[in-house]
Amino acid sequence: MSTRISRRDALKLSGALGGMALSAPVIAWDRLAPPRGLTQKNSYFQSFQPFDPDTPVPQGEMRISLMGTSVIERRAQARSSVFVELGTSPDPLLNECFVFDCGSGAVSNYVAMNIPWSKLSKVFFTHLHGDHTSDLTHIYAFGPQGDRKYPLFIWGPSASGVRNPDYGNALSTQYQNPEYFQDGTLAFTYHFREMNRWHTESQSFVPTSYVDTIGDGYDIFATELDWKEGHSRHWSTNSAVASPSDHDEGKDQWVAYWNKALGVKVTFFPALHGRNGAISYRLDWQPAGLSMIFTGDTKPNNYLLRGGAQEDPRPVDVYIGEVVVDPDIWISRQTGISDPRDDTFVKGLVNAQAVQENSHTPQKAFGYVLHALQKANKAPRLAVGTHFQATDDTIALAMNAIRSWYKGPVVIASDLMVLRVTAGAIEPYRAVVSDYSWSANWDRGLRDTKPPKYGNDAVCNPYAPYGPLQQFDQDLLQEVIDPMDYDPTGWQVQNRQWAEACLNPKARR
Fold first, then answer.
1. What is the DSSP string of 429-493?
2. 3-class secondary-structure state, position 396
3. The sheet that has 382-386: what strands, in order across it?
4. How far apart are CA 245 and CA 229, in angstroms?
5. Which of 156, 160, 252, 280 sits at a 20 to 30 Å CA gap from 204?
6. 354, 356, 328: which is closest to 342 by C-alpha?
7. What is the fold of 7-165+179-324+360-431?
8. Is the pTM of this model over 0.85?
9. Dist. CA 65–CA 478, nearest whole Å
10. Beta strands in 178-331 (DSSP E)
11. Which residues of the chain have pLDDT under 50?
12. What totals of helices (H) and strands (E) does the chain contain, helices first?
């Protein structure tokens, strides 16, 4: 692969914008001064070779697509999500696929990349902040309307165990004030399922399960990963649904998922972000000899240097780590104020520093972690910085900071960056998509399905077994505008006798 960039664009970029681990020798970028002030484009990302997302994943390739790469809402960058597809099968529809976090806006990128719902059935959360979980609602609620007519599998951290400082306060007005909140993944998924009850029932007048699968598209199987001890426990909406993993929860410590037949293992280890409970993930695909780490949001820590919860001497191929804009840059961009004597700037700076101290990896710390891995002969083939507001100016400053510690291959992620990872090369691309995409074709959604929950198989029902009017009160149906008023020759008029008699429960009595 060749990555091309004009000298004009190169001059707008910053110090050593990173060699990349490519099939060709590592590309060196000129070390130049960063652009002055705020910029509104990402020449760096635009320099990558374009990529057609409909390109099948061949056997032996690990494809990593960055679907959400910012910590704040941006039109060009959704919030955090990483999609990994492994070429484990001659049939790409049967490949192993994983979603790591799914923050707000990310689903639009999955749709634009033509990824079907059936490939979004395994979701791994690094933590339960809204900017990493918000689009789970869309994946869960609309997957069964596409080709994911089987349960959704979710992994995430156990409860924090942080004591509620307001517990026992007689003046508290909170509706609940326990000593310890149930803030783990099992509680999250239970309430998430009930939160979506109206949606799931109302959409169940059409089929939501296949005849050859156990469970329904609105079933959930959740695995809670103990961030402190490395064990796991489960909860499901359906007792008949089994874990998709082969590992022994009682013996395989720090294992989240293991497909032993395919040699695919996802392990986890503690992260430091927000409060107790955040975790990072490592994926190892043994037959292909490929691996990756996704740190999620975290303060720099020694778990990363060990390669997991316990010492792992193997370097990973791709290290996807959080890196954040420096606090002074963040505040100057958010407020438009850069005078360090300004009260608003000072207050904002302290706030930003406190947030980073609580939760995040500064730019130099990102470089330091990579430097430490390199010293231990565990440097990744490619490091990827994400969770970062990526424009020419911020990329320039970040790369200068990273390069003060680490000279190896680094890229800064933007939405729709695609990495094609094989034993011989790691190739970064820029996916070219339509802004007006439809959802992916339902190639697998045409399989035989079970009858819908709110169905009607009456002979007079032209939509059998669907039951589109089964959940409406007769008084509401009386208020429907007669189709004769707006489309007298249309299909609804032709079927009006059905609408009035066949599906009307009261009319059938």
1. EEE---TTPPPPP-TTTTS-BPPPTT----TT-TTTT--TTTT--HHHHTTSPPGGGT-TTSHHH
2. helix
3. 255-259, 264-270, 279-285, 290-294, 318-322, 382-386, 410-412
4. 19
5. 156
6. 328
7. Metallo-beta-lactamase; Chain A (3.60.15)
8. yes
9. 50
10. 220-225, 232-236, 255-259, 264-270, 279-285, 290-294, 318-322
11. 1-33, 506-509
12. 15, 17
Helix (H, G, I), strand (E, B) or coil at 402: helix
Angle at 371 between CA 366 and CA 375, to 5 degrees: 150
Q: Residue 195 and residue 208: Cα distance in Å, rounded?
A: 18
Q: How many other CB atoms sit within 10 Å of the CB of residue 95?
A: 20
Residues 40-81 pLDDT 10s = 789 999 999 999 999 999 999 999 999 999 998 899 999 999
Collapsed DSSP state (helix, strand, coil) of residue 292: strand
Tokens of 456: 């009607």
- Which residues are 421's β-sheet partners? 62, 426
Q: Output the six-digit token pair for 368.
A: 């330091």
**What residues pair up with 322 in beta bridges, in sequence order?**
386
Q: Kindly report, residue by residue over 372-410, the tens digit of the pLDDT.
A: 999 999 999 999 999 999 999 999 999 999 999 999 999
| Nearest-angstrom CA–CA distance, 481 and 478 | 8
Of 371, 363, 361, nearest in space to 405 by CA = 371
The domains of the chain are located at: 7-165+179-324+360-431, 454-509
- Starting at the edge strand found earlier in the chain, the sheet holding 62-68 runs 49-51, 426-431, 417-421, 62-68, 81-86, 96-102, 122-124, 152-157, 220-225, 232-236
Number of C-beta neighbours around residue 409 at 10 A:
21
If you ran DSSP here, which 8-state letter would residue 28 be given? P
Length of the chain: 509
Number of Cβ within 10 Å of residue 446's Cβ equals: 9
pLDDT tens by residue, 189-234: 999 999 999 999 999 999 999 999 999 999 999 999 999 999 999 9
